[in-house]
Amino acid sequence: MKISTKGRYALRMLIDLAEHSEDGYITLKDIAARQNISKKYLEQIVPILNRSDILNASRGYQGGYKLTKSPDKYTVGEILALTEGGLSPVVCLDYNPVGCERSAECPTLPVWKGLNKVIHDYLYGITIQDIIDEQQKRSADNYVI
After folding, report:
1. Cβ distance 56 to 65 under 8 Å?
2. Phi/psi at 61 (5° precision)
3. With 70 as the cut, is the pLDDT of residue 112 above it?
4. For residue 131, which of 19, 7, 26 has the smallest C-alpha distance?
């Protein structure tokens, strides 16, 4: 499984919004400049996030975007599942029950189920706030005189 640019950029965008939440609504132009991401690319990601009520948008002067909830309420898994269309390592796990006619006798299905559980538990166990906290901790540990 590879996480696409769309998923990585969506995560960076939401982290940026969380870090600058005190500034009110943040423009895509500002996010694009800070994150070195094309504004046009961010414009393609915004509708995905808007449909899921992750973002609150404001139009007009002083308009932009902000998170609808606090950063500790968003998991990396949730964000990547939205942007990637799912996180299953194999297609047969995209359906519940497993959508393969061979699933009853498939010798590799337990492997894929185990991998899927590890991926799910890991990514849904990390919040945007966790990422921000870890980044701040690394910055604090990098003290130079």
Report:
1. yes
2. -60, 135
3. yes
4. 19
DSSP annotation of 62: T
- Which residues are CB-contacts of 111 (< 8 A; sequence separation ≥ 6)? none
DSSP secondary-structure letter at 75? B
3-state SS class at 35: helix
Three-state SS letters, 92-105: HHHCCCCCCCCHHH
Q: Long-range pairs for 33-41 at CB < 8 Å and ≥24 separation? A: 35/9, 37/9, 37/12, 37/13, 41/5, 41/9
Judge contact between 111 and 117, C-beta under 8 A: no
The average confidence (pLDDT) of the chain is 90
On whether the pTM is more than 0.90, the answer is no
Record the tokens describing residue 29, joined without a space: 């132009």
How long, in residues, is the chain?
145
Q: What average pLDDT score do residues 7-30 get?
A: 95
The pLDDT score that the predictor gives to residue 36 is: 96
pLDDT of 143 above 90: no
For 48-70, the pLDDT digits (tens) are: 999 898 998 988 887 899 999 99
> Letter for the amino acid at 83?
T
